[in-house]
Amino acid sequence: MNARALTLAGAFAAHRWLAVGALLFGAGVAATLAGSTAMAGMGGMAMPGGWTMSMLWMRMPGQSWAGTAAGFMAMWAAMLPPMMLPALLPALARYRRVLAGRSSTARLDVLTAQAAAGYFAVWLAQGGVVYALGTALAAAAMRDPVLAAHAPLAASLLLIGAGVVQWSRWKAHRLGCCHTLAAHGGAAWRAGARLGWECSTCCAGLTAVLLVAGIMDLRAMALVTVAISAERLAPRGAGVARAIGVALIALGCGFYVIAPEA
Questions:
Q1: Which residue has the higher pLDDT, 135 or 105?
Q2: Domain limits of the chain?
Q3: pTM higher than 0.85 for the full model?
């Protein structure tokens, strides 16, 4: 094949990957909407302090803990493509461009798939940590009414802390590591997993926002998705991250005040 044909083949393959990403994004949105609707129908449990605990963290009658965890992980997996693909696809596109001159199209597709699999494997593992933490906190709140009554204050402090982190050097450094997949020195899966680790730790504060607002709250998911994408894709991502931090601090300061006193 001549150089022009190779260029056209590479462009076609890149567009094919964008189409695959769009399909995954759409499937994830549909599954997330279905899961959110199902959770809304289940309601929640009123707790001391005027807040409501999601049934997501509770085992239903006749349901095993393994089944409950599997249900949570299925919803977490459905959320990942809509939330993370807008930020991941540009990194995958750059990865393909770097490797295009040294790999065939078929090999490039395999490497791209492996890198994406490594990335999402780390995020799935983080979902397991979130579930373990959420169920532990829910169990503690169920056992201790005093602890449950202070949950709105704890949530407010968590939001403020997440906002402060957005201003830190640590956050700026993590953002700098979130843009590029390493295209040399190691397997594609390992490169994707490393990017997933950088990205998931960078998003720790924004993930905490989901824990406060509700994992399956569609408005919270949409806002967090926009925030994650903006701080990675904007020309001055660190400035965007700090602006998000200001919003989180303001939200945290007002959260406890506006919490319903039922």
A1: 135
A2: 3-258
A3: no
